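Quick start: read one record
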Amino acid sequence: MARKKIRLGLIGCGGNMRGAHLPRLHADGAAEVVAVADPVRKQADSLMERLGDQVPYYDDYRKLIRQDGLDGVVISTPHDQHTSQVRTALNAGLHVLVEKPLTISSRHSKALIDLARRKRRMLVVAYQRHFLPEYVYARELVRRGELGRIRGLVGYVSQNWGAMGGWRVDPEQSGGGMFMDTGSHLVASSLWVTGLRASEVSAYMDNVRKPVDINAVVNVRFDNGALGTLNTFGDSSRHDERLAIHGSKGCIVIRQHQWRVKSMLVNDEPAKIPARIQPDTPDAAFLRWVRNGGKGYEPADFALQVSRVSEAAYQSLAKRRPAKVRR
């Protein structure tokens, strides 16, 4: 049976939309890009060249959202724009796939999640690790109690992040540095896999002569008494990433390098991931949930927890003492 066509508008036509989202939408075979929006026409032209089609262009995302016949939008824009763009799309009755982080304010994140519930629309935040088999299986093991009571976790991600420049190093647009940006993936995967909720955060950061943080060490106390560190190193030569989860009965270590999972160890043995857990992407899941009416959809509540941890980290830095995580 042919897949149902889904009509999408793309908001933000930069490199991430062109290089990440567009290929995944193409792979679906029935996702139809019917309009694009970006304040810079050159960016939109580059995207349409890759799209292989000329579609209506808007310099204002609100004009795109008013176009008839849309099922949803994909948003890949500077962080400070997410709140207004997601809110406008949801109020128009559209499903939304938005790049991480959902917003740079926990208050705004909660408002958007609540709005999506009221409107009965899907709101998906593009955290890719949640769709990788290793992370999905790790979450299953934790939920089944294979690790026992979670006692602690250690995670880090490194990248030559500071070299990117642009809006990411503008505090107003980004809301923070690498910890807010790439670090958001680490925070999200840690909370999503373990199910832990943070209660207190203590942060140490180094801007390395940039307007925003490049390196960060963030210590976290969780509600169940577990302790953890979530660290970002943005002046490194390349991407490297690890998440180690330790419990009263066992441990899991997931290692990535150059954006690919290299290994998953369970109690120091290579994990045997069930064949039923297949690689997925946030885009494919978003389209699937729109088609099936939300079967299997998981509301973006964890994205609110990510916002609260990030917010507390920057509060801790500013006040030079531990900060409570907002409830």
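The domain at 6-128 is CATH 3.40.50.720 (Rossmann fold).
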